[in-house]
Amino acid sequence: MESISYIKVPKGLENVLVDKTKISVSDPEGKLIYRGYSIEDLADNSFFEEVAYLILKGKIPTHEELSDFISNLKNEREVPKEIYDLFKKLRGTYLSPIDLQKIGLSLLAAYDENWYVQEPEALFLKTIKIISKLATITANGYRIVFKNLEPIQPSNELLHAENFLYMLTGSKPNPFFAKLLDITLILYMDHDFNASTFTTRAIASTLSDIYSALLGGLSALKGPLHGGANERATEMILKIKDPEDAEKYILNKLAKKEKIMGFGHRIYKKFDPRSEIAKKLFMKLVERYPKYDNLLKIMIKFEEVMKKERNIPANVDFWIGPLYYAMGIDIPLYTPIFAISRIVGWSAHYIEQIQDNKIIRPKAEYIGPINLKFPYERKFIEKL
């Protein structure tokens, strides 16, 4: 074989810089920046639509730009009736809610005459449609397939987070819960070159259409080591009924060298800034709804024991999953909710990738055999 000099990198591309981006950056010290603004600043002072515009366009919108953006999102909430018709046929199957998102997104492309665009402004308008319609697909898909209910027509009066909760329940949402959801969507919106974003960019680098690239992002997010972690962490926490039992549970898991879901992060070594924000949100929730005080104590005990035993901080999924649980949202929806926010970041990365594109094509180190001889005595076909 030809001898070529390759650059060897760590498995999983850990700490490898593969490209440049202006969208977001995370730091081991516990920082997350969107387009120059800290996640703390945005969570405290902004809301989903404004941060989405920032991620997509690279600047805080003017009042007029924001108003137009919100109006466009509201006007794009309806989805083709055929999507709901198909969902009704999927009742009783083994699909997950995130699979419904993938099916719905594929069908959106099928009903989009101009499904392939590459110009930045055309992609921006395409992204508005996808962001808005994916939320509708998520809420109504869950209602249809998993609840055996009819879809709810989206409201043109409510903001994005409010409308999502409205479609889930059919009732005007609790304003406090709507605000909590809105902030968590900001926390989930982007996170530099995570697995799903890198997947999206790899597909974009082939100059495939944005729908295909976003489907790749959804597929990567589904994994329990990525977006699925919030569901697994919540299921774990709910097994514990008393704070003291939490320590026993963790020590037993650690003794067996099993992973504690909701702890540790590839980037953050000291703390996850999103987790700190989500923890404060949960504390505010407990102030209003004291019945979740025991759950809070259990979670704090988890943090204390993991800090003492492994010096590993909780990540954002540890606190956001139980927050959704306390809001009355079913666990199978947690990863799809992650997706209806991260679709903004994926779209921004798609647009950025194709503006200065080179196809992503790494090389693997082959460690298999060579020079094997085919067993010609096993003749099943005749040679030409």
Strand and helix layout:
Elements: E1 24-27, E2 31-34, E3 37-38, H1 39-45, H2 48-57, H3 63-75, H4 81-89, H5 97-110, H6 120-146, H7 160-169, H8 175-188, H9 195-204, H10 210-221, H11 229-238, H12 243-255, H13 273-288, H14 293-310, H15 316-326, H16 334-355
Antiparallel strand pairs: 1-2, 2-3
Helix pairs in contact: 1-8, 2-16, 3-6, 4-6, 5-6, 5-10, 6-7, 6-16, 7-8, 8-13, 8-15, 9-10, 9-16, 10-16, 11-15, 12-14, 13-15
Task: Give your account of this protein's structure.
The radius of gyration is 23 Å and the shape is globular. It is 56% helix and 3% strand. It is an all-alpha fold. Helix 3 (63-75) crosses helix 6. The longest helix is centred in the middle third of the chain and has 27 residues, at 120-146. The protein has a single domain, classed as Citrate Synthase, domain 1. A hairpin with a 3-residue loop joins strand 1 (24-27) and strand 2 (31-34). The chain has helices at residues 39-45, 48-57, 63-75, 81-89, 97-110, 120-146, 160-169, 175-188, 195-204, 210-221, 229-238, 243-255, 273-288, 293-310, 316-326, 334-355, and strands at 24-27, 31-34, 37-38.
